[in-house]
Amino acid sequence: MKTLFPLTATELGAEFDLGAVLRHGSIPLVWVSDDRSATLESYVQLYLREEIRGEALVRNLPGFVRFLPIAALFHGQVVNIAGVARDAGVARTTVQGYLDILEDTLLVHRLPAYEAKLRVRERKLPKLYWVDPGIVGAVKRQLGEVTAEERGSLLEGWVMTTLRAHREVSQLFDEIFFWAPHQAVQTEVDFLLQRDREFLAIEVKATDRYHTALPKGLRAVDGLPKIARRLLIYTGIRSFRSEDGIDIWPLRRFQEAVADGSLWP
């Protein structure tokens, strides 16, 4: 089984524009459209009509429609099932079923937490990632300029899709997780790639300026055995290594590394 992902930065080449990708995504049909917002809106309506209603995947279509924008708010987060159920006016078990439908129809991916058995207790619930930033905006009915609050989760989700897309054509990793200690809410590693018995830890930051507090999660996960690389991806322009051995890469270098196989040392 192969999955057709949105266009990657490698496929877009010189056309790649991060601002455009975070606002409208890179689904081929949308990318070549003269009116990307209108095409995205039609894309979501077609999904509801053909995939959901046409295939009779849900009994309560209005409830599913209410659920979608709420679920989009949890892009890059652990989903609060009880809160989503309350806001959508459906049962908790129904929300679980709706999330299964989104994953089965390839719109979202649930990223499991890695249980490293370190000295701290890790979170167990998965994080939710939509496959394309444009779909997140269309489902929320917010296709205007990306706000500063949205930028971080959208960039993180785009990196997630990039990793998964390149895995389709190369042995980039065997498994992918996130890691976060249970009690330290602000400390986590966005992506923990496992290949054979080695790990590669990645943190994504939507900032042009590096400061020493950014790789907090990467320092916390240093106790995990066989960490091949700890990598911070940001939107600045300079590549370097911190004093404690963390690689700091601009987005462009990350794009090149996943394409040419140099992501792992």
Gist of the model:
The chain is an alpha+beta fold and 265 residues long. The chain is 41% helix and 17% strand.
Structure description:
The chain is built from 11 helices and 9 strands. The longest helix is centred in the middle third of the chain and has 20 residues, at 148-167. The protein is of the alpha+beta class and 265 residues long. It has a 6-stranded mixed beta sheet. β8 and β9 form a beta hairpin. The chain has helices at residues 9-12, 18-24, 28-31, 36-53, 61-72, 81-88, 92-104, 133-140, 148-167, 216-220, 251-260, and strands at 77-78, 108-111, 127-130, 175-179, 189-195, 198-205, 227-234, 240-241, 247-250. Helix content is 41%, strand content 17%.
Large-scale geometry: globular
Give the helices and strands as they follow along the chain.
Answer: HHHHHEHHEEHHEEEHEEEH
Q: With helices defined by DSSP (H or I, 4 residues minimum), what is the helix count? A: 11
CA-atom Rg in angstroms: 19 Å
What's the rounded overall pLDDT mean? 93
Q: Say how many strands there are.
A: 9
Residue share in helices?
Answer: 40-55%
User: Regions with pLDDT < 50 over 5+ consecutive residues?
Assistant: none
Structural class: alpha+beta
Sheet with the most strands? Answer: 6 strands, mixed
Strand percent estimate = 15-25%
Give the strand line-up of the largest sheet: 4-5-6-7-9-8
Distance between the termini: 29 Å
